[in-house]
Amino acid sequence: MSNNELSNLKQRLREFTEARDWDQFHSPKNLCMALSAEVAEITEHFQWLTEEQSQNIPAKKLKEVESELADTFIYLVRLADKLNVDLLKVAEEKIDVNEKRYPVEKAKGNAIKYTQLDE
Predict the structure, then answer these.
(1) Interior CA angle at 99 toward 71 and 31, to 5°?
(2) How many C-beta neighbours within 10 Å does residue 81 have?
(3) How confident is the model at residue 89, as a pLDDT?
(4) Helix/strand/coil (H/E/C) assignment for every residue in 40-98
(5) pLDDT of 45-86, one tens digit each?
(6) ∠ CA(81), CA(9), CA(58), 5° rounding?
(7) Which long-range contacts link 7-12 to residues 24+ away (Cβ below 8 Å)?
(8) By the 8 A CB rule, do 13 and 81 touch?
(9) Which pTM was predicted?
């Protein structure tokens, strides 16, 4: 996603929200809570699946997951917008941090936390 595409999405969400007079409800606290609820709805789709089942979701269920992913993304974009956070910039910065925390030679093939890599 380019900066321009993300900016266009943020603007469209602002207009959608303003047209419905919902900005009054879109405090960072409320958006964070809504985001958390949407992530839980994604989780619910995978809750009792095996690893293999989770990688081979039937088309109908995948459509439902896509809808929840979209809701999650929308709330994340709105929250970042309200906090004036450049999501693309901070994501790049976080990847840089994680590359240092998890050097390939120490982290490849395992899932332990960076604080345990040297133990």
Answers:
(1) 20
(2) 21
(3) 96
(4) HHHHHHHCCCCHHHHHCCCHHHHHHHHHHHHHHHHHHHHHHHHCCCCHHHHHHHHHHHH
(5) 999 999 999 999 999 999 999 999 999 999 999 999 999 999
(6) 110
(7) 9/77, 10/77, 10/81
(8) yes
(9) 0.89
For the segment 34-43, the average pLDDT, to the nearest whole number, is: 97
Q: Are 5 and 66 in contact (CB under 8 A)?
A: no
Which residue type occupies 118? D
Res 65: pLDDT: 97
Q: Is the pLDDT of residue 114 over 80?
A: no
What pLDDT, on the 0 to 100 scale, is given for residue 105?
87
CB atoms within 10 A of CB 72: 19
Per-residue pLDDT, 112: 83
- CATH 1.10.287.1080 positions along the chain are 3-84
Position 71, amino acid: D
CB-based contact 78:20 (threshold 8 Å)? no
Q: How far apart are CA 64 and CA 43, in angstroms?
A: 12
* Superfamily of chain region 3-84: MazG-like (1.10.287.1080)
